[in-house]
Amino acid sequence: MGLKANSATELATRAEEMREAYDGQRGRNLNIDMTRGKPAPEQLDLSESLLAEMSADDCRGEDGTDYRNYGILDGIPEAKHLFAEYMEVSLCEIIVGGSGSLPMMYDALAGGVLFGVPGGEAPWKDQAPIRFLCPVPAMTGILPSANV
Predict the structure, then answer these.
(1) How many Cα atoms within 13 Å fall on the side-chain side of residue 64?
(2) Are 130 and 111 in contact (CB under 8 A)?
(3) What is the pLDDT of residues 59-91, one digit of tens each?
């Protein structure tokens, strides 16, 4: 039965039941981390010995670039060469990002909304509502248009 069919008294009773259930869960003091894809401490511990074996010299590129710092926007050249060869594409078709895909997906979508995409007519924000499907959880939707 939908909530609209309930009387005010029934809704108040249901609200109180839900508050009690919520307080019961809160009282358990659970520490739940629902971060998607986050490794468990045991998984992180697997690579600890590898990190102990590294020195500052292991963090430098063939050209002497110190990879412990920022500044290589499209990725470490050696990684780009490896993946370009593996994927049989040119270096300009490879972008090596950080350890998460969400920032790259955000940048791609925000670029389309604000500036458009190569071969496109205009920024998406200036076009009729654009429908898109992004094959990751919780990232499907309709982009509103500034003209609507």
Answers:
(1) 0
(2) no
(3) 888 988 888 777 777 788 999 999 999 999 999
The CA distance from 139 to 132, in Å, is: 9
Q: Which residues pair with 66 in a beta bridge?
A: 60
Q: What is the pTM of this model?
A: 0.46
> Helix or strand or coil: residue 19?
helix
Coil, helix or strand at residue 21: helix
Tens of pLDDT, residue by residue over 22-46, are 999 888 988 777 776 777 788 888 8
SS3 58: helix
Distances (CA, A) of 39 to 36, 96, 136: 9, 21, 18
User: What distance in Å separates the CA atoms of residue 71 and residue 86, rounded to the nearest whole number?
Assistant: 25
Burial class (CB in 10 A: 0-12, 13-18, 19+), 124: buried
